[in-house]
Write a structure and sequence with these properties.
By secondary structure, this protein is α/β, with parallel strands linked by helices. The protein is built from 3 helices and 9 strands, in the order βββαβββαβαββ. It has helices at 34-44, 82-86, 95-103; strands at residues 3-8, 12-17, 24-27, 52-57, 61-62, 65-66, 90-94, 108-114, 118-124. It has a 5-stranded mixed beta sheet. Strand 2 and strand 3 (24-27) form a beta hairpin. The longest helix is centred in the first third of the chain and has 11 residues, at 34-44. The protein is globular and about 40 Å long.
Length: 126
């Protein structure tokens, strides 16, 4: 399955799809909303093939749902229907958890991500 990965950040949005050699950075900012995100991602990924989308979100995510709007971006993230907007299946995870998962090779991992904010994740395989 080909997946488009979207890493939402307070300064930039980064996107990369399965099989693509380079990620694309899209400026975001303090007033950035999901309504702005969707058309920018669609335009920048127009030449890429993907069947599903994975989103790393800079805030609390529970059960694949955004719990609250981030403090460093615009409003409207909580409750936004990404699947309807993109027309594809979407999974949402905390951005630090996504970055940690991408670097996980087994055993114990404590991940600390420094960006616009600080994110942490802890993985322990038992």
């Amino acid at each position: 399955m080909k997946v488009l990965v979207i890493d939402i950040g307070g300064s930039n949005i980064k996107i990369l799809a399965t099989g693509q050699p380079e990620r694309i950075k899209i400026p975001s900012g303090g007033d950035f909303t999901p309504e702005q995100l969707v058309p920018l991602v669609i335009e920048n990924a127009k030449d890429w093939e993907y069947e599903a989308i994975s989103i790393g979100f800079p805030g609390v995510v529970k059960g694949g749902k955004i719990v609250a709007d981030p403090v460093n971006m615009g409003a409207g993230w909580k409750g936004f229907d990404f699947e309807k907007a993109f027309g594809r299946p979407v999974k949402i995870i905390n951005d630090a958890a996504m970055q940690a998962l991408g670097s996980y090779e087994g055993g114990k991992l404590l991940f600390m991500g420094f960006g616009t904010g600080l994110g942490t994740a802890w993985y322990l395989r038992t």
